[in-house]
Amino acid sequence: MKTVLATLVIGALLAVLGALGVVYSGLFNVAATVEDAPLLRWALVATREASIKRHARDIHAPPPGGVAQVETGFRIYREWCVMCHVPPGRPGPPMAKGLNPEAPDLVEAAEEMSPAELFWVTRNGIRFTGMPAWAATLSDAQMWDAVAFMKTLPQMKPADYDALERRIPLAPQQ
Ligand code: HEC
Q1: Exposed, middle or buried, 133 (CB in 10 Å: 0-12/13-18/19+)?
Q2: Is the per-residue pLDDT at 154 higher than 50?
Q3: What spacing in Å lies between the alpha carbon of 9 and ligand 1's midpoint?
Q4: Residue from 59, 78, 84, 128 to probe ligand 1 pocket by mutation (most atoms less than 8 Å from CB)
Q5: Who lines ligand 1 at CB under 6 A?
Q6: What are the tens digits of pLDDT across the range 107-130?
């Protein structure tokens, strides 16, 4: 019994020393240019999806606000989101090229996620990635507007997006 205990304690100590070795040796490469191994990538995506589902389950979406809400959401998207998330039919924004993980196409996200899930991600961001928590910048009402806009993306053709951009002027610079 004593030997088992001693082996366990020594094993645990070695694991802690090993972990400290990895942390302080600088061997782990934190560069955003390193691609995650497929298994790690799978684990990160599965963890993200399950976490968003769980945390968003008690959020109730307010009733939809129609065209005016979508337009306000478009303004928010253009001001705060396009630098990372590609608008329909456009090439990837320059800054987004260096993101790891990359910022996903919101068309797919809007198809697969409920309004509550889109709201939760927008509000809280995603840790260890470039996705900011917008609660620090936007009000809940503004984030629901952004959700309303995202929900129109799956039906939006590049020409529709161009038309929106022409019709709705840019907000004055603050
Ligand atoms: C600085 C870059 C950046 C900006 C700006 C940004 N995002 Fe993101 N966003 C990301 C990244 C990177 C991810 C992917 C994280 C991951 O792979 O786990 C992401 C993920 C998301 C997701 C989840 C998609 C999915 O498939 O799970 C949503 C929804 C989203 N962003 C909405 C927004 C909205 C709305 C805005 C603007 C208010 C915004 N983002 C601004 C980088 C950004």
Answers
A1: middle
A2: yes
A3: 43
A4: 84
A5: 48, 76, 80-81, 83-85, 99, 101, 103-104, 109, 118, 121-122, 126, 129-132, 134, 146
A6: 999 999 999 999 999 999 999 999
